[in-house]
Design brief:
globular, alpha/beta, Rossmann fold, 4 strands, about 160 residues, 4-stranded mixed β-sheet, 2 domains
């Protein structure tokens, strides 16, 4: 939860804007953007972790966040190991808020990369980065040729 975000923000030396538990998520996102503009920051990450496409209230809240903040980029972050669930989640998120691209984590455990290919196919949007481990350096730019090579290799 928020404690994990606080730990990472502290380690990375970035500011974290948060509100009390239960605060309106769109208002918190709006406050964070206002804070960033006032401080001259050019990037704001709004974490909407824990959204399932089947939870209508959380999806409504995410649409409100997008409407209020008008983000430059909407990035879906999914778990490559969940396979078709990640694909369906990406499809739903794209329909609900229009994603611009995806980041897939746990790619170090997905030998073939089928989720990446399927998510790109169903959303029509690129995979931007892959999470290949637990360290900050393990977020790497997506290179399609690596996935294609793994899909075409014979066992």
């Amino acid at each position: 939860g928020i404690e994990q975000l606080e730990t990472h923000a502290r380690r990375l030396g970035v500011e974290l804007v948060k509100q009390r538990q239960g605060a309106d998520a769109a208002a918190v996102a709006y406050d964070a953007i206002s804070h960033a503009r006032a401080r001259g920051f050019h990037v704001v990450l709004v974490d909407t972790a824990g959204r399932m496409q089947t939870d209508r209230d959380l999806m409504d809240e995410m649409r409100k966040i997008v409407r209020v903040t008008q983000p430059d980029l909407r990035i879906f972050v999914g778990d490559a190991l969940t396979g078709n669930d990640a694909v369906e989640q990406a499809r739903s998120f794209n329909q609900e808020v229009g994603i611009d691209g995806s980041i897939l984590c746990k790619m170090d455990a997905d030998a073939r990369g089928g989720a990446a290919l399927s998510i790109t196919y169903v959303t029509g949007k690129p995979i931007l980065f892959l999470g290949t481990g637990q360290a900050y350096e393990d977020l790497v730019e997506f290179k399609p040729e690596l996935i294609l090579r793994s899909l075409l290799e014979e066992d």
